User: Fold this.
Amino acid sequence: MEKQREKQPLPSELYTEEYFLTACEGYDEFTSSEGEHLSRRLQAAFELAEVTPGMAILDVGCGRGEILRRCAQLGADAFGIDYAVVAVRMSQQVIQTVGDVAPGKTAVMQADAKHLPFPDGAFDRVLMFDVVEHLHPWELHEAMLEVRRVLKPDGRFIIHTAPNVWYDRYAYPVVRLVRTLMGQGAQYPRDPRQFGVAVNQHVHVNEQSMWSMRQALRQAGFEGKVWLDSPPQNRQENKLLAFLRWIAFDVPPFRWFFEREVFAVARKMS
Assistant:
């Protein structure tokens, strides 16, 4: 534990408005709809929470605030915390626009996920979307203990994190090789962390597999379901690629390596 603690939290200054508007997942949908619409990934994670009117929801790492807005529109009381000052400001701007639309209360504040400023057993749902990968293992454990403390006895803890670290370590080299043989290698850099949003190389410190996510939840006193999924795939391809894709996404244990996103729905251990 002491060795882990030598890894200091990432500076909050890394999370700028530019980051939230150009690199943080769902930025295209947020910008085009002014926070009204959720991205495919955020929508998939949010649906797992099954939010209903009157619930108390906590969004840990609320980012731009679109999840808080959606909760309020559904009639839930939505509270958000974020480590970054700019995220708090952006969320406040977004939730102000729902005042005449939804009955749910909303509030947002700057806080550390390891020290949640709420009483025990306060929330029906705690959401942690695309936050896990930004917390060192010791931070994640302390944050999960805090989530357990503020969650009601029958509450649910919903997680989404990406990428599946097994994809980057083991599947991506295979994908890159196949694409290179097909003449598409230039689109696939040797380092998978350079594929897509380059800034994530500096802010992703704890990417998960399905198994490590299960272990982290169990160690913090949670039980539940952890699984993998991937973005919708383009099926217009030759027979070889179709066969390889079938193996990768439909046949265990191969899919444990090729699926790219990690989801979890957990409850307190009894």
